[in-house]
Amino acid sequence: MTLKKLMTATATLSLGLALSTSAMAETIMRVSSWLPPTHPQNAVVLKTWGEWIEDATEGRVKMHVEYGMGHPKTMFDLVEDGAVDASWSVHGYVPGRFKLTESAELPNLNANAEAASVALWRVHQKYYKQANEHEGLLVAALFTHGPGQIHLAEPIQSLAEMKGRKIRLGGGIQSTLGKRMGVTPVGAPAPKVYEMMQQRVVDGVFIPTGEQKTLRLNEVTKQLVLLPGGMYVMSFSVFMNPEFMSGLSQKDQDAIMAVSGEKLSALAGRAWDEGDAKGLETARKAGVSILEVKSGDPIHQEFQAMIQGIDEDYLERVADREIDAAAALKELREIARNYKQ
Fold this sequence. Notes:
Helix 2 (40-56) packs antiparallel against helix 10 (261-286), helix 4 (113-126) packs antiparallel against helix 10 (261-286) and helix 4 (113-126) runs antiparallel to helix 13 (325-338). By secondary structure, the chain is of the alpha/beta class. It has 13 helices and eleven strands. The chain is globular and about 60 Å long.
């Protein structure tokens, strides 16, 4: 072999080894999601987080989102067991495990999802983290959706008319509100709501306005009842498998956490706020009857009377967590109401 050919072969081998090493060094972060790919949580939040992670790790870690892996309540177990590396889900789908995060769900928060999400993250880091409710998981973000409202197949003029109606409830504080309102609760994951309302398995649902568009509820809803500040919000977490993270270099672990936490929490909340605005616009264009309740209106007064003592009930439920839950609730509301983007 001539010297020129030898040099060429050596260079080719070196390039091949470099490319092979690069490919071996790349880690795919498998993330399970349970809402449609077009939902803002997937199309905006996970997509953006994936881009942040890839940039922060200089391409060493890339995200791949997988769908159809089960009910949202199973996401916690899937990640803890290592079936996937990360996911997100609703705290209220696992009753009894996540109590402290209900503080953000209580009525009269009067803040948008971005503000509530940042407040929940900060209060979690200061108060809730020590209670270890996410044991076996590494929390990457905490967030809420926008104000939960009432979507109905047949209209009402007062909350008293809700008594006995079959309403899909998603767990958490919704169950408490449904009980106080006297509805007949029906459990089901959010993606099933369209079919259930279409077939009149349920008479309505408590859910944010964004789902008028993302879940096409505008096609099956006759009335959208908008209470000031909503009835509640629902809390979620984004979480990762600790073993997956420990298998990365410390540099990449730090890089991923730098684009998670409060930054990711704010992004998730903001995406829900933007989705709610689009959902309300979709409902208006579809001709859905919108009952915009003002503060002090009879329905608003009904609601305020209905939720009397709900804060105290929450504080009693979390007494076993051995943290200053009253101080945490007060601080959460102050942060949320005074938050500026």
